[in-house]
Amino acid sequence: MHTRASTRKAESSMIYSRKYHPDATLLLIGFFGAGKKTLGIIASVALHRRFIDFEAFFREKTDLSPQAYIAAHGSAQYRTVEEDLTRELLTKCSNGCVIVGLGALASNQQQILLKDFAQEHPVVYVRRAESELRRYVGTGTSQDKFERVWQVGNTFFETCSNFEFYNQTHTDSRDFERQLPSSLKLKETERLFVEFVRRIYGLSHRSPFSSEVSPEVHTFALQVPLDWLDSCGNFEILDSGADAITLLIDIDVDGKDQNRLQSQLARHMATLRLHSRVPVVVDIGFSPRKIDTYRLVLEMLLRLVPDAVTCSLSCPDEIIQWLNSTKGSIKTIATWHQPTPLGIDASQDAHIPVEKATQFGFDCIRITGESFSIEDNLACVAFRQRLIQKSTIPVIAYNTGISGRASICLNPTLSPVVPTSMDATAVTLLDAQKALTSCYLTTKMRFTLVGQALEHTLSPAMHVAAYTACGLPHSYEAVQAATLSEIRRLLEDGSRSGVAISIPYKTAVLPMLDEISPDARDINAVNTVVIKRRRQDGQMATTRKGYNTDYIGVRNCIHKHLSPANAIRDGTTVLIIGAGGMARAAIYACYKMGVRQFCIYNRTLENASKLAEYFHHWTHRSGTHLELEVIESIEKQWPTRFRQPTIVISCLPGQQVGSEEMVDVRISERWLQSTTGGVFLEVAYGPCKTPLMEQMLPFATKGWVVVDGLSLLVEQGIAQYEIFTKRPAPVHVMRKVIYELSKENGTQNRKKTSTTSVSILSVRITHQYQTDKMTYQPAIMSASLGRAWLHDLSYKIDQAAAAGFQGLEIFYEDLEYEARKLSGTDNPTTTHLLAAAAHIHGICTTHGITIIGLQPFLFYEGLKDRTQHTHLLEKMKLWLQLAKSLHTDTIQIPANFLPAEQLIDDRDIIASDLRLLADLGAAETPAIRFAYEPLCWSTHIDTIEKAWDVVRRVDRPNFGVCLDTFNIAGRVWGDPVTPTGRTDNADQELQKTLEWMVKEVDVERVFYIQVVDAERMRTPLVAGHPFYADGQPARMSWSRNARTFMYEDERGGYLPCEEVARAIIQGMGYQGFVSMELFSRTMSSEGSHVPVEHARRGIKAWEMLKERLQLQ
Length: 1112
Prior knowledge:
In the N-terminal section; belongs to the shikimate kinase family. Residues 709-738 form the SDH C-terminal domain. InterPro entries: Aldolase_TIM, Aminoacid_DH-like_N_sf, DHquinase_I, NAD(P)-bd_dom_sf, P-loop_NTPase, SDH_C, Shikimate/glucono_kinase, Shikimate_DH-bd_N. GO terms for molecular function: 3-dehydroquinate dehydratase activity; endonuclease activity; shikimate 3-dehydrogenase (NADP+) activity. By secondary structure, this protein is α/β, with parallel strands linked by helices. It folds into 5 domains: 26-168 and 180-198, Rossmann fold; 206-439, Aldolase class I (TIM Barrel, Alpha-Beta Barrel); 446-547 and 730-740, Rossmann fold; 550-654 and 669-707, Rossmann fold (3-Layer(aba) Sandwich), CATH 3.40.50; 777-1109, Divalent-metal-dependent TIM barrel enzymes (TIM Barrel). The protein has 38 helices and 35 strands. An 8-stranded parallel sheet has the order 12-11-10-9-8-7-6-13. α30 runs parallel beside α31 (866-886) and α34 packs across α37 (1057-1067).
């Protein structure tokens, strides 16, 4: 790329203060496919603002999409209208909005308007990897053309914006080797972008350094060179317990390729944000020979909104003034380096750089020297002490070099440490903490967990592992306490620095405390007590302050696992099971997340009533509003004034106090009828799953995410660690030790034959890229809800979700029509198709629907025309891209039904052709599977026996079958051309087929199944019949016009489909999605009632099948 430098030169003349009115409108621009709309919606929700898409605004004003307007009136007229509408939009909506969709055609007029808007508003260029954008353009576009388009667009977006966000495509998220649902990737994107926006508006309160002259604990910054991130294979070390991360930029090395540097900086900043929770400081090495490059890099960094940037006091004053006038909410750290040890020459004017930094508006200063002797270190400490006496900003001071390592350890603010794998001569966090301990500058702390039934607790091991990883000398032990007096003795023991309170003492301990945090006071329960001792009036005074980290753990668990379809909104209801201290924390956590409606169920009704009464009084005192209702018994119906719960939290202990007996509580399934599922959180953990957890596991197939107590243990443990130590927790260490210990203790269940995918920290059932089986979830084919030229796909998805479907087969016709609609053209390009696929995935994700496959890839195998065969191989490459954009791993291939004269009747050739597809799919990451379906009218492969023979010949693990009750029963049992509607010996032939299928077909190669019936023809389907088509197989005409959903006897359904389904599910042991693939003349009926009616009929059939086969 060759335009970036000139772009930067133009931008340098523009001064952005980057300080905005809190309500200033946020504007997102960028290439098509960068994710602007998704990010815009996320920002509008987080900021409580109106979301505006320019395309929708344009359509509202002109009754045409931009593409349609250009087609009708030409580009010149469009640009005139675009300019007018852009000016109107930016003028009328300058506050309280999030706007996306501007800049699509990169017009000069719009560029001027956007640059002017950026003077007082944040305009964010949403970047995406060029390889990702290339997917949207399509393989048909040459590299040269793509580069030209990219250069023009990139120049336009850079000059119009004052910020950049790199929308990183997350690799497959894994949770301790478990594949996580795709919805969690969107959660990470949400977290990163919301934090980014908050930093823009100055709403983030994180600071990379303390403003205290003598901070209570030493802080450390993990040094990460820019080029190291390119080769790092383990980003876990970024979350190692350091207080900040410093990204190091070497101007002489990293600044050589300025055309690449901006994208590299944006990408690596996104990586640091993704893999760490601490502030990011960017440290630019100063070179007097490269002043222009230095300023250019500073400009790049301000656009990325790090928490802090450094700037050398040796650079020209105008650059320093420019930086501090345009930094916005970013902290600036002045740097000063001298080639001699700090403090050796007491006569030097050490205060001058501090005064200059203060005068120019820096927030902190770092002064470094070069050490040649170990003796220099104490002088450096004294040097810093002299400076801080008069400085109004924090001072960082240390010597560099091997001899200066002690001064690094003794410097209390943002001392530089390196990953253990990087440099043996530098200081690691472990080295620094051990050095402080050896110098008695870090006090050894003793923490104790106290309560009853602690036999299976993993907390001590988790905390001790974290202390050890960070070099802290602390200890953490567990003590059983039979009485409250024993806790009092622990709180009064002078050797302890903190006590973790477990059941049943979380409320009873309150009178023993001197202070209680506001959250713990509201909850009226404490699980963390910090004990501080200080000298006051000549005597030692002890303060015991109580906190509650249980609610933090509950809040984080719910937030991380709540799907977009169940996002908290008005009317969201929570079911609380239990009435103790943890129940109080759970209600408070959900209240803080925005929930206002709660139902409480507890075996002891009196305690449930007391809990409800407590929060009734609390809401009255605090001026808030909560609705709480106690459910008296599991026989009661769910309260009609509340929606079905989408959050259920069991706050009961796993075992009876004082015994090994499990707490046996279950709830009514009538309380679990949310059509979109929800989150079930079990706060208890132990070697065995609780009966309630066992009850909830099957509901994972209905959209429920089941999270066990280990997840809560880690989340609240992170908060407790940070309260006790006042240091960031090494999260990956804590998770890993819980994972390892839980395996040893038998808490993890990973049997290959399990009907659910049980994660160590949560149970998540997801079809996408998953190898473990699920139980059963209902799906429907998109065209079964109405043909694409009559019924909008988004409306059909709405109706499928409302009915309760959890999976969707995408019919290619629907995808193509969606691309036509979005692009405004009747001939959508590859780019349009891929964009439509991504759009469809977004709609489905919003509804909590999984796309289970893309179909049908027609007329491929066994062709005599090998030129056409080659063409279809190329077409499959597009389909593989479409599958990825849809976030599905399955493509369905119906067995070929072209006329026999066009096909080769040789199964080896058929298998060889299909093997080519399987190998193409296997080369993708993750692999794409192919579900081969024998149609009852296919030319050569028209039975399951023949199809399975082909699958065996293909011999690839990603090539299997789709079994359809209609196509199986409609071939060996039903016949539309006979007066009886049946074949000869129908019952015997069906029985024979089903017995063979159960015995021979490997269920692991059954990728999904379809269940539908068909009408019995009143007269044989031959010439003269309304459905007859000359040259078309009768069974094909029958299928296209007269399928019904199962159990629709009143519509003429008559095939023995239940027997086929029973053989597949109960005989073969199939588990997974069960799809309703209806083809019928009613699909072509007009009216919005068609998708509604078809969805209703389909889910009714599913419910009947589920009941008759007793499916979970």
